[in-house]
Amino acid sequence: SSPTPKFEYSTADPTSRDDLPGFPPAEIQQRVHGTVFAGAMSGALSLRYLSFRFVRNVLMRPIVPTMKVFDFGCGWGRVQRVLLKDFHTANLYGTDIDPEGIEIARQLLPEVHFEVNGPRPPLDHADESFDLVLVNSVFSHLAEPNFQSWIAELTRLLKTGGVLVFSSWGQGLLDMAQGVFESGKRDFPWQRNILN
């Protein structure tokens, strides 16, 4: 018998996009994640690379186009756009608390499933719906009780053997949060969310 291959490589089906969608205005990109254009895409590509490397090299599982992927805190869809050639677009989902970001995401990537979520769980998906859940620096902006409730909710959405990958700021965010506490400044949603 032949050995089982360590990695299984495949590409999304021909109906998946082969072009790159446009960008929202720089002001929107800056507001959502603090970077624009190349910087915005660099962050999204880093999350993709680290997630895929973990799944392939640590869990020893292939990344295949039929996987269902959920991006929690998707903003205007920047992470989904770097996944277009990896997964069937019908299997890409995203949610965000910002209705304006979701509207932009729907315009840029109409074939991807986007929805607005509330400030607290639940999400409108069945248990064990997704193979991969990505959370790019959302938890950095939540108070601990919200973090705990969202971790429980996103874990509920994972299929058996599914993977939750999230990134978070370190000490730099704690320093910024201290400034928010001291100044009382609440101009942006992330500043308000740290206290809720």
**Helix/sheet category:** alpha/beta
- DSSP E strands, number: 5
Question: How far do the termini sit from each other?
Answer: 57 Å
Biggest β-sheet, characterized? Answer: 5 strands, parallel
Low-confidence stretches: 3-11
Query: What would you report as the Rg, rounded to the nearest angstrom?
Result: 17 Å
* Residue-averaged pLDDT: 84
Q: What is the global morphology?
A: globular
Write up what this structure looks like.
- With 196 residues, the chain is of the alpha/beta class.
- Helix content is 38%, strand content 15%.
- The chain has helices at 26-33, 38-58, 78-81, 99-108, 144-157, 171-183, 189-193; strands spanning 69-72, 92-96, 113-116, 130-136, 158-167.
- A 5-stranded parallel beta sheet has the order 3-2-1-4-5.
- The model is unreliable at 3-11 (pLDDT under 50).
